[in-house]
Amino acid sequence: MRTQRQVVDYSLQKRAVLRELLAGRVGTYDVCDASPYLKNAARFHGEPTDRRCPICRSENLTLVHYIYGDELKQSAGQARTLTELPVLAMTLREFQVFVVEVCLGCDWNHLVEQYLLGRDGLAGDSDGAGEQDVAAAEGAGRRRREAQR
């Protein structure tokens, strides 16, 4: 997506959790604790992947995208499909996306990444500045043609 910025990747944290699990310092019940709400969001709004679950290795992981932001009001905290995000990015100034991977088989879940989306990420388009630039360019073109006459 064009406006994606301030990306935070949690793959190092995921590796640390898996290392703790393999070393026996953490139990599977501690890391496989997806809530029923998260599992439903994965079923109905998730994006299936071709990556296997690192715990059970029998199910493919599903990515769930949660959105948060001041402009969202009651929609904040909802899961959205990946196809809805570009539409929201063009209509809202700024909102945050949290991507969680979920295994529907063993309830593994982990925050994969977070990033910002929205119109504020577009160069030169802040509060109608893009429309003002177009009007200014048209006016400059008109003045140039008049000066050439």
How does the SSE layout of this entry go?
Layout: E1 5-9, H1 11-23, H2 28-31, H3 36-45, E2 47-52, E3 60-68, E4 79-80, H4 84-91, E5 95-102, E6 109-117, H5 129-148
Antiparallel strand pairs: 1-6, 2-3, 3-4, 3-5, 5-6
Features:
single chain; 149 residues; alpha+beta; 6 strands
Walk me through what this model shows.
The protein is of the alpha+beta class. Helix content is 37%, strand content 26%. It has helices at residues 11-23, 28-31, 36-45, 84-91, 129-148, and strands at 5-9, 47-52, 60-68, 79-80, 95-102, 109-117. A hairpin with a 6-residue loop joins strand 5 (95-102) and strand 6 (109-117). The longest helix is centred in the C-terminal third of the chain and has 20 residues, at 129-148. The chain is elongated. Mean pLDDT is 83; it is low at 125-137.
How many β strands by DSSP?
Answer: 6
Secondary-structure element string: EHHHEEEHEEH
Low-confidence stretches: 125-137
Strand content: 25-35%
Total helical segments: 5
Q: Major β-sheet, in short? A: 6 strands, antiparallel
What is the residue-averaged pLDDT? 83
Q: Compute the separation of the termini in Å.
A: 45 Å
Principal-axis shape: elongated
| Helix content range | 25-40%
Concise summary:
With 149 residues, the protein is an alpha+beta fold. 37% of the residues lie in helices and 26% in strands.
